[in-house]
Amino acid sequence: MRLMFSAAALVAASAVLAADEPPPSPEQQARTLAKQFVGQLKPQLKQAMDQGGPAMAVTVCAEVAPTIADNLSAESGWTVKRVSLQPRNSGRAQPDQWEQAVLYDFNRRQAEGEAPARIAFGEE
Questions:
Q1: Where are the alpha helices (DSSP H) in 1-114?
Q2: 2-32 confidence digits (pLDDT tens)
Q3: Which among 43, 69, 101, 105 could bridge 80 via Cys, Cβ 3.0 to 4.6 Å?
């Protein structure tokens, strides 16, 4: 009985502690989703490159990456997608005007010497 009470108290205490933590900021949430996306896509791209070279990797990008993005979107409530200024898949990777402006700004910042790993943008 004492063990059950201790376990119940521990569970209740951890629930209170978890409730006291502030929710992650939108930037933290976005970074987490980006890491999850890359973490799921990268091993599949590597495997495709090892098995079939660049042609198979392009197929993974075209077919697997959108599925990963769709799954992360459904799980998180965010819109997750890949866009590029030079999209290969005009149906899914085409940036809208806002995304295009941000991507051009990223290119400018990198050309001015900012480290790519530090380049980010967000607005609420």
A1: 2-20, 26-76, 97-111
A2: 444 444 444 455 555 556 789 999 999 999 9
A3: 69
